[in-house]
């Protein structure tokens, strides 16, 4: 049976269901599998011809014991989670007309037009499945810089076992992203816009981490999280790396590199996980915007927190990429003592200077670059004005600009797959800055037009008072849920 441990080494191994429902490990670390499953060359050939959902079933079966989720139920959860995607391929790969060696993998065909849908639907559907079995209810608290919140809110809407509290830095995400949370009208979804966030989403992450660090409070409020700290998220995201590789070169062994717009490092860690499982990926490009903590770490060996810079690619405006700790855990040979020392040092000083051996280990197959806002706009413009116009969102443009910047560092026959992580319709103001005020048809989507005409429901809070305000709000909602449950039980008793 595959079990999960903490990167800090302070807990006993747990089963998949416990790791998923807890979110954070109780010692403050992140859950990881005790061992990473391996896929042989023969198995890769067998997987290469599968459709996306069949591929997902085979890969997820390696991480989820059938005693926890029977294979029949796992299949149903996967099918349900991807049923609402607009494209039959889930994440189709398209060639780039400006360069035959570049490809674009579209990860935005889910219900909220973001790559976060790829893992979020399965994660929350699986949570609901497990909670129903346990007759329990959870409170999901998560910070979002644009796309995680809408994906979580949509997936959680109407679930009787879950209350979802997406927190976002007010004024630092697009109105389209905000409305995807505030217009749902679901009684169990409670979006909260937080004002005066100096460090954007990182300010919210600190509050969320503080709540989870208090075991008594966590238990009293039934807290869990679906941010990319949740193991299930990165596990599911590994699937699109397999799928993109197979769509681009089958199992021919041709060199393939993925260029990934990177903020919290969850999506990029999922690529690393796929490579560790056996996918023969040549390398990864870590594409940062001006918030370049990851680029600095890869290029200098110094992992440092710097002041937040607001950019056009706001979803990756992250100053502390928390999933980087998972990556460091594995690149150190799974050394929890080293991770504890490093995390404590980082918390105390805001910086970590990796030793020479560790700095070399993280560079194995990884390159990085920081892309400016002007380069992001230029890339959007260049791709749309090509012979076959293609409209990139600003995050996909960061990935594409990074691929072009580093193209010469790879052999000429290397294929680079750029991950387009959101639909451009979520960023109309940025598209207008790149192309002019007359937006093309590709810059719109029916679901966003519909959301723009619906009343909003949200709470607004100042960041200084977020912790206490959030705790009170969750407590009040918990009391309300209990009263509703007691009333329903009373009626059932009368009619029974």
Helical percent range?
40-55%
| CATH fold topology of the largest domain | Rossmann fold
Strand order of the largest sheet: 3-4-14-9-10-13
Q: Give the count of helical stretches.
A: 20
By helix and strand content, what is the structural category?
alpha/beta
Distance between the termini: 43 Å
CATH-defined architecture of the largest domain: 3-Layer(aba) Sandwich
CATH class of the largest domain: Alpha Beta
Write down the overall mean pLDDT: 94
What is the beta-strand fraction? 5-15%
Topology:
Blueprint: E1 4-6, H1 16-22, E2 31-33, H2 41-47, H3 52-60, H4 71-82, E3 93-96, E4 99-106, H5 116-134, E5 138-143, H6 148-156, E6 162-169, H7 175-182, E7 192-195, H8 201-212, H9 215-221, E8 223-224, H10 231-249, E9 256-261, H11 266-277, E10 283-288, H12 293-300, E11 302-304, H13 324-331, H14 336-349, E12 351-353, H15 356-362, E13 366-370, H16 373-384, H17 394-405, E14 415-420, H18 428-435, H19 446-451, E15 459-462, H20 466-495
Parallel strand pairs: 4-14, 5-6, 5-8, 6-7, 7-15, 9-10, 9-14, 10-13
Antiparallel strand pairs: 1-2, 3-4, 11-12
